[in-house]
Amino acid sequence: MSLVLDPVVRARGVAVAALCRVTVVPVARNSGVSVWADKRPLALLLRSDGATRCVMPDGAPMPEAEVERLCPGVLVRFAGMCDTADHP
Predict the structure, then answer these.
(1) What backbone phi and psi angles, to 5 degrees, belong to 83?
(2) What is the pLDDT of residues 28-74, one digit of tens each?
């Protein structure tokens, strides 16, 4: 299992990215090898007017401390992605 921060998407002046848990499991069988994979959002990070807020996938607020516990440094990284990304 690993955590990934998806690319930033912009809409109506808001930058959004998902923090996701990704799991990839190789399965070996007599007939060969297969892979099982799963990607699930843990949090949505939203940034507008220089402020970041976090919500759970169902839209409920999520404390920034909880997001940082899941993935230390992700909020600073997200802000940097938003502030330096080329956008129209």
Answers:
(1) -80, -20
(2) 999 899 999 999 999 999 999 999 999 999 999 999 999 999 999 99
Q: Which two tokens stand for residue 20?
A: 């996701």
Contact criterion met (CB below 8 Å) for 48 and 40: no
Copy the structure tokens of residue 29: 């069988």
Residue given tokens 């799963």 in the structure block:
38
What is the distance between the alpha carbons of residues 8 and 78, in angstroms, rounded to a whole number?
8
Please state whether the predicted TM-score (pTM) of the whole model is above 0.90: no
Nearest residue to 55 via CA among 1, 19, 3? 19
In the structure, what pLDDT confidence band is assigned to residue 1 with cuts at 50, 70 and 90?
A: confident
Tokens at residue 76, please?
Answer: 């600073």
